[in-house]
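Support case: user asked for a sample of complex input and structure output to validate their parser. Sending the pair below.
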Amino acid sequence: MAAVAAVTLLATAGLRRDFGGLRAVDNVDFALEQGEIRAIIGPNGAGKTTFVSLICGRVRPIGGRIVFEGADITNLPAHERVNRGIAYTFQITSVYGNLSAFDNIALAAQSSIGKRFRGAVAVVDVARRTGEALERVGLADRRNVRAGDLAYGHQRLLEVAMGLALAPKLLILDEPTQGLSDSEIAGFCDLIRAIAAETTVLLIEHNMAVVMALAGKITVMNAGKILAEGSPEAVRADEAVQRAYLGG
Amino acid sequence: MSGLRLDKAALVHIALIAILFGLQFVLPEYHHLSLARIMVLATYAVGYNLLFGYAGLLSLGHAMFFAAGLYGAGLTAYHLGWEAPAALGAGVLAGLGFSCAVGLIVLRTTGVSFMIVTMMFAQACYLLTFYFGDLTRGDEGLTIPQALRSFTALGLPVDLANPAVRYNLALALLALAIAITFAIVRAPAGRVLVAIRENEERTTMLGYGTFRYKLLALVLSGAIAAAAGAAYGLLFGYVGSTFASIQYSILPLLWTLMGGAGTVAGPFFGTLIMFYLGDVSSGYTSAYLLVVGIALVLLVLFFPKGLLGTLRQKWLPWLP
């Protein structure tokens, strides 16, 4: 049987970052294939958020390289990485509280559409894509509500919709289910699965049920390093992982 | 649906300009002159509001842009003998170039640092007007010769000392500034400016190079302020250092806060109210600044969003 050659979407080599004297990310070599749902797990302070912040450009590395679609993006500013297709949704909900849900998403849609096309066509496209994103996350009936007035769970969905409206190639979700109820989490998992049909998803997540349900492959981080990587079953059976989590 | 609302907003602003046009036929001489002055100063405030109210950047040094226009027009007129239209162009160009150069430096800071750095630049400019006292005559200032303030345009004689000419040119300038702000606010770029005001980091992570948008806002804001400065010098015939002082950096901030930051027409109403507040109260007491101060305290306490900002919040959500 001929194996389908996997296309590497994102790779890092020797990626490093210090905060003060602490090495938050320590020589990380990492590769992500197109179309997968990858979860990054690890104890608090393992460097997960710093690692994805390096990928999306919010934090600058002190060493190493980041390659996206074969191009070196290590020195690109964050907004240009977004334009190349890396979208990041914030761990702490970071919607524009004073703008309507529609305007929040329209800003994202306008970013990916407006720069290529000009004039009335773009305006219609922005409105259409915004409407689609609202439909997909189930917020269509709340389009004119001030984002700050939305329930917490809906604000998380709005974050995801903003990510979607960017039409990214890689969607990075930083603890998307934090603070959601069990029923909201179930709906969220369905949404992520649907999104993964067209976009590669990189997910930081503490809720192991979510990780096991969604991820095709899991990367375990501890103390700034990759401790283990593999299928959910393999990672669950890994002794080093159990030690890191259980402190044995 | 939303198209109708936007048209309503446009009509309201057109109506405001029409009312101001009509007022010149009924106002007594004193108020006629005052309103001309207010409209030029309001243009300055409208420019200030573009940066402060929409992009959320609080400058404490906008007098340097006003003065760039004032001296750009005043010096070319006084020393080179340029007629008013050419001098006005020189003032606006001076403001454009200057705000571009200053913007590239000061926009590397945000928040409190931005306030301090803009204030320091403006103070340096204020002192420059004295350093080059041979050209500017500092505090004493320059009086633009009457001959340069009357010229022919399209075959018609124009005299800037004529009250009707002055009033309508001031109105045209204000209308233009309001139209520019209105167009930007409704354009996609305006939405991005508001997004930067609300949460700059988030806006970067949506793929916007925020520096470029902030520079655009600052250059437009500086150019409108410079146009107001150039017009002020030419219409009222006087160019002096006072207009570069810190007082003229604070005033547009107060006018904008009074009328409503982030509303298109708010700065005009703020300028109007503050001007007459000082004007009327100084007729009764020499402590008129106290009256102005109390009005500002009351404003902050009861209408923190300013006049039009409060109107929009409570009754007119469609107001841009």
